[in-house]
């Protein structure tokens, strides 16, 4: 399987973005676009944008080890664990426009399980970065593989991309699906089929 080149890892203690500098640049961008940042409706926009961008890129500053390692448990359970329909919102790194959708994440344990709440949190961590959907899919799957050492991991992401719907091709309501199958999900067609059928099942 071809691996996408990921950005270099960042330390958990990475410095928070300096809001004042981001605000100043947003103010300049508004001026360059022909707007007047001094008008009433835009007075607080640079500050709001800076805070929003800091929140939407907060995943770069999360320590994955701290997130996962405190929630690993030894169990004899050896059937599929699936968390489906996890909502996520991310920013396309090419245009900094949103893409959003649902993630379906499964693994087949091998003596270790992870607290269920950590799976949506892991999806959120990778979503809250400047991203491409393909890389995000791999990052979720490979992180679970590396931390849990399971028999297999499966991840499917379904998303709409506003960079494609609002501009360029203007292809409306054309969701993109990406998947990553590792271990037994890649080798065993029956296990893969079971995962895909469960992921497509009606909501609970």
* CATH-defined topology of the largest domain: GTP Cyclohydrolase I, domain 2
Mean pLDDT: 91
Please state the overall shape, judged from the principal axes of the Cα atoms: elongated
State which percent range the strand residues make up.
Answer: 15-25%
**Order of strands in the sheet with the most strands?**
5-2-3-6-7
Secondary-structure element sequence?
Answer: HHHEEEEHEHEHEHH
N-to-C CA distance: 33 Å
Looking at CATH, the homologous superfamily of the largest domain is GTP cyclohydrolase I, C-terminal domain/NADPH-dependent 7-cyano-7-deazaguanine reductase, N-terminal domain
SSE class: alpha+beta
| Domains (count) | 2
Secondary structure: helix percent? 25-40%
Broad CATH class of the largest domain: Alpha Beta
| Number of E strands | 7
Poorly predicted runs are 9-15
Total of DSSP H or I helical runs spanning 4+ residues: 8
Cα-atom radius of gyration: 19 Å
CATH architecture tag of the largest domain = 2-Layer Sandwich
Please outline the major beta sheet. Answer: 5 strands, mixed
Q: Could you describe the 3D structure shown?
A:
With 204 residues, the protein is α+β, with helices and mostly antiparallel strands. The protein has two domains: 38 residues, GTP Cyclohydrolase I, Chain A, domain 1, CATH 1.10.286.10; 138 residues, GTP Cyclohydrolase I, domain 2 (2-Layer Sandwich). Helices cover 37% and strands 24% of the residues. The chain has eight helices and seven strands, in the order αααββββαβαβαβαα. Strands 5-2-3-6-7 form a five-stranded mixed beta sheet. A two-stranded antiparallel ribbon has the order 1-4. α1 crosses α2. The chain is elongated and about 65 Å long.
